[in-house]
Amino acid sequence: MSVQPGWYVDPADTETRRYWDGEGWLGAPIPVDATPPDGPPPPEPEPPAPATPDAPPTSPGPVAPGWPPHQGPQPGPGPQPGYGPQPGYGPQPGHGPGWGPQAGPPGWGPQGGPPGWGPQGGPQGWAPPAGHPGWLGRPPEPRPHGLRLAGYGRRLVARLIDFGIVFALNVVVNGWFVWRWAQEWAPYWQEVFRRASRGDTSADGLPLPSEQANSLLVAILLIATALWLAYEVPTMASGGQTVGKRVMRIRAVPMAADQPLGVRRALSRWSTLGLPTLLWYCAGLGLVLQLVDALSPLFDHPLRQALHDKRAQTVVVEVPQHTDTAPSNDRNQPPGDTP
For bias kind Gly residues, which ranges apply (predicted)? Predict the structure, then answer.
């Protein structure tokens, strides 16, 4: 999933922001608390035209994108009386036509940016997204809003805790319907096991459950889905955390800004994973869809988003030990963060 163009916090220096055009960084960084301009930064100045044989080059050479160009020496008042070429100065044998001294102080040469800069002009330690052409080595892990991404182990344990709570709610609310459904199927399975013990594999004359069994199954799935919805959506909308996420110290935040999810985003996130429960009626199809969703963070890079995260534009991050679990909502900063 590509991140929309906009101003985001630099992953290498969280005190600055830079403009992301959907493929790479543009322009120079600005302080994180400064109000970014509308749209992309102004274009970099065009490099001077290449030198011709009649005019020696005066450009200091290419510089890193976003780095102010080298100004070179300042013009003086002019040559002093009697000034002229020094002995031995000028084209030497073997030099091509038009050769002359380069602009700048003695020993100066075109610079390629400050020491330690990467091949794309980013600051030291910064790397473009995975697959960026010309970058060698693995890029560092992104830190949305300056927070570490939650590991898959934490997310799995948190989800298992939540499933345990929802299961306990179903035992209380849905228990009678499940018992009645099991009673409808009990004669069928008892006969199947009785025949299997005698080596009889025929299905003729098996006692089938009544039509009430199908109605009971639909009621069970509807109640289970409603309980899951009532458990997860309100808590995720207000704080980005369920009981399981609080225990594992992780929470879900929007990609655009570190703020509460809200009901609409929380409902969109839950429905991708929760609504397939109703499809358990269709030969377990819903369970397969939920399994794929649950495993999807293992194959998503670099933000480790599950399918429900992608739909709601959220990421799951760790909650630092030294801060409150409640998400911050800084109205003084414009929305946008690390892509």
Answer: 91-101
pTM: 0.55
- Domain membership flag for residue 64: no
- Kind plus residue range of the DSSP H or E element containing 217: helix 212-239
Q: Alpha-carbon distance 240 to 110, whole Å? A: 51
Asked whether the beta carbons of 111 and 70 are under 8 A apart, the reply is yes
Q: Is residue 179 part of a domain?
A: yes
Question: Domain containing 20: what range?
Answer: 1-35
Query: Beta strand pairing status for 314-318 and 16-20?
Result: unpaired
Structural domain total, the chain? 2
Residue-wise pLDDT for 190-238, tens only, equals: 888 988 888 888 888 888 888 889 899 999 999 999 999 999 999 999 9
Residue 111 lies in a domain: no
Strand-by-strand arrangement of the 6-9 sheet:
6-9, 16-20, 25-31
Residue 130 lies in a domain: no
φ and ψ of 144, to 5 deg? -60, 130
Q: Which two tokens stand for residue 4?
A: 């929309």
Q: Which helix (H) or strand (E) is 307 found in, with range?
A: helix 307-312
